[in-house]
Design brief:
This protein is mainly alpha-helical. It contains 16 helices and no strands.
Amino acid sequence: MKEQERVQSKPRTSFSAWDSYLKALSIYNQGRPQDFFDEMADSIMELCDEAIAKDPLLCDAYVLKCRLMYGRVFNPEFSSNRQENEALFHSLAEKSYALDRNNPEAVISYSRSFNLKKDFVQRVKYAKEALDLNPSHAETNFDYGLAIINEGRYEESEALIKRAIELNPIERSGYEGFFPILYMAMRNSEEAMNWSNILSDRKHHSRLDGFRASISAHLGNLSDASAYLEKFRKARPEIESLDDYRKVTPTICEDYLLEGFAMIWDK
């Protein structure tokens, strides 16, 4: 209801600015790039900047830029610019929230800003605020599911992610991308391996070889674990030690991953 009221009372923006934003959104929806470093993402950013230049109060353009920048923060292709990208994301998230606190996607961005700052109390607070604004919004369910993992509420998180898939099956593959991390946090090695394999078959990424190396070790398959670790280290030569890996490990499953790697690293 709150979301419906927000849309109905939303002030009109410049048609020219809205047109630039819709072009950016169209490109985003057509491609849905998982790794935001290609020309498609650059075009989206440029169109959002164009929209903001025409109407500095157009919250939606800031929100779309937030989506792209949040992806870049975690993309290893941008690891050398992570500090700069985080700073830009925080600025965009604060701006979008200040412009429209009843926009659930703006609130999601603001919540994710606290995630990067590792302020998990505020992270959960604003993720819940976004969900309350629109409980039927797939992204608010998904994001709240991610947020409460920091409180160890794994089963609730799993249910919310599955709810997001029900609400928006088109984004199914994106939401399912979090399952390996969730199941590692739950120490459900079988499901973690199952989903790591599914995601690797869809689109391989070296990160998944790292996951499977540790998961295999937990499952007692040390030969498979060593083979996955070798593939991972060839793809990521900058990770020379467990301390290096710790820096890129998802916090919620850090202990699980490092325990598995300890069984095979330099063995």
